[in-house]
Write a structure and sequence with these properties.
The chain is of the alpha+beta class and about 325 residues long. The chain is built from ten helices and 17 strands. Helix 5 runs antiparallel to helix 6 and helix 7 packs antiparallel against helix 8. It is globular. The two termini are about 40 Å apart.
């Protein structure tokens, strides 16, 4: 969802500071023409356009969905209070969940209406304050513990609900609840089952490939690591996705044993037939370059396009077992 496509219809801010006994709930919506709306739209765009997003549906037992469906213009304020009161109850019972301001919004994109809940966790930083003394002002720097995230900062918990279909897009983070790490935002608050995000799926696939490769080739085989990374990079560049069923065969094409080991790992995550489709360039950025460091501290960064060109880069295994990296046909060498 792009912020320029969003038309804000209603918004309100509630203060859920779990260090206090009660939430501070607002009785008035925000000014829709304020800079605050642009700030909130930017956060909606940031998390809905990322690969951290999860798509899910409310369970039949969810007591949040009826409140969301009842969040009409006539009772928007009261419904938003109920949504935040339920969230505060969970926060107040689990001290590991950080305090926050919560923004509840109704907006439309291309004639479809959505409700957003953004949990703006407090961050601690320094700011200035001025005190008026008898002979003038005294400027000081103080540690402020209730600053909101910046516009470019990633939110830990947020969701957008399609009001026509009930589909939920969310991002979340685990916190300790009753002694164990849980995804409280989806499991306890929204009461919906959230599958893995595209980023999590990609991380699982790449970690499994790395573990198997290290087991059979060792962690010090830099050239083999680059070959593996190049296969994944080419799949993402050419197809925009990874077919889990076939990626093991392509990465470990010379070893049936390694292919079977990869399949076993994917079965543990119920991902054998998954298609991983990251949409954010930030997610796949790590595959675009290979960073190498020698034992003497020399660092080399090789773009994957250059790695694929034998006229640019060549790895040479010497007779004594050492490796030489030959960088060819350099037109200009810059020093930074």
């Amino acid at each position: 969802m792009l912020k320029d496509d969003m038309i804000m219809k209603a918004g309100i801010i509630h203060i859920l500071d779990s260090s206090m006994a009660m939430p501070v709930l607002s009785d008035y919506p925000i000014d829709l023409g304020s800079d605050l709306c642009d700030f909130l739209k930017a956060h909606i765009e940031k998390f809905t356009e990322s690969d951290d997003i999860k798509n899910c549906q409310f369970s039949d037992l969810s007591d949040i969905m009826p409140i969301i469906r009842d969040c009409t213009p006539e009772n928007f304020v009261d419904s938003s209070k109920l949504l935040c009161e339920k969230l505060f109850q969970i926060m107040n019972s689990n001290i590991d969940i950080p305090p926050a301001d919560v923004a509840v919004m109704v907006f439309s994109v291309k004639s479809c209406d959505y409700l957003a809940i953004l949990k703006l966790n407090y961050r601690t930083s320094y700011t200035h304050t001025t005190r008026q003394l008898e002979n003038g002002n005294s400027n000081e720097i103080i540690l402020h513990k209730s600053l909101l995230p910046t516009q470019g900062q990633k939110l830990s918990e947020a969701c957008v609900v399609d009001l026509s279909t009930g589909e939920v897009m969310l991002t979340e983070k685990k916190y300790e609840v009753n002694g164990e790490k849980r995804l409280y935002f989806s499991e306890l608050y929204l009461q919906c089952h959230a599958p893995l995000s595209q980023k999590s799926k990609l991380d699982i696939v790449t970690k499994a490939v790395e573990q198997i490769n290290d087991k059979y080739y060792g962690k010090d085989d830099a050239e083999r690591r680059m070959e593996v990374k190049n296969v994944i990079y080419q799949e993402l560049e050419e197809n925009g996705a990874l077919q889990v069923e076939s990626i093991g065969e392509k990465v470990f094409k010379d070893s049936l044993e390694m292919q079977e080991a990869f399949s076993e790992k994917m079965e543990k995550y119920n991902m054998t037939t998954e298609v991983v489709e990251p949409k954010s360039q930030r997610t796949i950025k790590k595959f675009q370059k290979q960073h190498l460091t020698t034992e003497t501290g020399i660092e080399i960064t090789i773009p994957m396009e250059e790695y694929q060109n034998p006229d640019r880069v060549e790895f040479i295994t010497n007779s004594d077992g050492t490796i030489s990296v030959l960088i060819k046909n350099i037109g200009r060498l810059d020093s930074k």
